[in-house]
UniProtKB/TrEMBL annotation:
Stretches assigned to the ABM domain: 11-71
Listed InterPro entries: ABM_dom, Dimeric_a/b-barrel
Entries under SUPFAM superfamilies matching the protein: Dimeric alpha+beta barrel (SSF54909)
UniProt keyword annotation of Transmembrane present: no
One GO MF term: monooxygenase activity
Record flagged with keyword rRNA processing: no
Protein name from the UniProt record: Antibiotic biosynthesis monooxygenase
This protein's UniProt keywords: Monooxygenase, Oxidoreductase
Organism domain of life: Bacteria
Length: 119
């Protein structure tokens, strides 16, 4: 029932000038869409005041999650973090130990599934 792994990553931005962030976002979204078929959702939002960015991600499996994280660390992590500070990172689902180990470095908080459904 909880084979998918999802999270919401919150970044408090250090600038309200979003053009650089949007440029990086477009690069990351396009690369993820094109090269990572196990990524089910990859959505970026920004608060009305331009101070907070949320990135919602959902992966079909532990393997898909690890593939994304490897690319993110190699190509994008430092560039993204230049735009602000990670203020929240909440992970949903039941990731395996390898995924937990990879996410722990980002300060992940885990929400264990206890019920529900997905269509």
């Amino acid at each position: 029932m909880f084979e998918h792994i999802a999270w919401i990553f919150e970044l408090t931005l250090n600038t309200k000038e979003l053009s650089g962030l949007k440029e990086l976002m477009n690069e990351m979204v396009n690369a993820t869409k094109e090269n990572e078929p196990g990524t089910l959702a990859y959505e970026w939002t920004v608060s009305e005041d331009g101070e907070i960015c949320h990135i919602y991600e959902c992966y079909e499996s532990d393997e898909a999650t690890l593939a994304h994280l490897a690319t993110f660390k190699e190509k994008y992590a430092a560039r993204l973090m230049a735009f602000g500070d990670a203020t929240s990172f909440v992970v949903y689902g039941a990731p395996d130990a390898a995924v937990n180990e990879a996410l722990d470095g980002f300060g992940a908080k885990y929400m264990a599934p206890i019920g529900g459904f997905r269509r």
